[in-house]
UniProtKB/TrEMBL annotation:
This is SMP-30/Gluconolactonase/LRE-like region domain-containing protein. Coiled coil: none annotated. Pfam families: SGL (PF08450). GO terms for molecular function: calcium ion binding; gluconolactonase activity. Residues 1-97 form the SMP-30/Gluconolactonase/LRE-like region domain. Belongs to the SMP-30/CGR1 family.
Length: 135
């Protein structure tokens, strides 16, 4: 289980006991020191973690141990979250936000747009709603 703390640029990892609905073993999974705050988070079927960087213009991929793997840049300063889509959950849609003042960060920024990542070579995971089976 993960918790994204944007204010401290930290993604926390926890052990989760589903039978008892208890979390334990809080630890730092990723502590960012460069541009961009982790905002949304997704996990793929291999356990890799994807973090969406507010004021970072990209989504980054980390392996299950928290080691950086790769990233995808987009034409928006404030990347917010994503969702696994496609028949096999092997594509990703990213969301972004418009600045509070409505002004773009650069001339042709596509703030507020959706971005579609294809050919990721991995499948995502279905959303789990507590108290219900994954759908």
């Amino acid at each position: 289980m993960f918790f994204t703390d944007s204010a401290t640029k930290t993604i926390w990892a926890y052990d989760f006991d589903a039978e008892r609905a208890k979390i334990s073993n809080k630890r730092i999974f990723i502590k960012r020191t460069d541009v961009g705050e982790p905002d949304g988070l997704l996990v793929d079927s291999l356990g890799n973690v994807y973090t969406f960087l507010w004021e970072g213009s990209k989504v980054e991929k980390y392996d299950p141990a928290g080691r950086y793997m790769t990233h995808w840049e987009v034409n928006a300063w404030r990347v917010t979250h994503g969702a696994w889509v496609g028949e096999h959950l092997d594509e990703m849609i990213l969301t972004s936000a418009v600045a509070w003042d409505g002004l773009p960060k650069w001339h042709d920024e596509e703030a507020g747009a959706l971005f579609w990542l294809k050919n990721l070579g991995v499948r995502g995971m279905a959303k789990h709603k507590f108290g219900r089976p994954a759908s």
